[in-house]
Predict the structure.
Amino acid sequence: MFPDCRTQDDTFSCPTFDLIPSDVAGFMEELWEFQSVFHDCGARREPRAHCLDSLVGHYRKLARKSIEPRALQVEGGAVRGRQRCLSAVRWDEEQRLWLSHQLLADAMGAPEGVLMLDESGFGKKGQDSAGGARQYGGTLGKGEHGQVGVCVGEASRQGYALADNRLFLPEVWWSAASAARRTTCNVPAELRLQSNPQWAATMVQALAQEGLLPCKDVGADGLYGKSPDCLDAVDACVGGTTLVALPADTRCWLQTPRTEEQTYREKGEVGSQRVVVAPGKAACPGATLAARLPASSWDRRQVSEGTKGPLV
């Protein structure tokens, strides 16, 4: 159904194709085979059955794909059982992640693969969902009460897929007033406040140590491009080209200056940050550095079609 190579030229356009009934004749058997790979991650057969029902419901044509509509679309589907499966059942998460990465590597792993770092947010009402707070959501394009997840994707000429993700817990969730909410939502006691770039760095390091998904390059937007923690983790683990966006006023050095950790106190809390010491040469804004490069150093490419026209 899919060609061996998902791209036909350097523009990386996805080829068009049409589905006919015979293409999905063995879909349920393949879905069961896929789900059975993760059987050892759960201790009982009931949660495994709920997971298969959830996958089947996900592929139904539904206006809303939350737990209840998906459960009701499956013969014998139990709404309460699906809810308990998500909230109370324990899974071997490390094993599940390792198996999923192995499947990704077999299906689309390539030495020239690319890791993509980004976050995704969506609206979520109420006060009882972990990480729920008023914050910017990319899919909404504005600040609203919702949840945000940090994602690492893997892409190659054979396709693209989600490799790992973490739920971002805003600062308000770490206040004393939110202690009860953290307990109710089973937030691990050892977890601490981390920014989106710090979560991305943690996942990149874990992928590198695991060694299942080969990659050469990394791409990210300006949120990650201006984070020293994230860039250092990428440089240490990947060793290829890092293509990130930078705010035009970001201070840059052509050679890495010497830095040191310094502590500071804010609102009674002690933190630390890395500061430049003895830079040698003064930093200049990224826009100034780019302007100094000759025209021959640049290529102009159209990336995609945006809401306001082509992105180049």
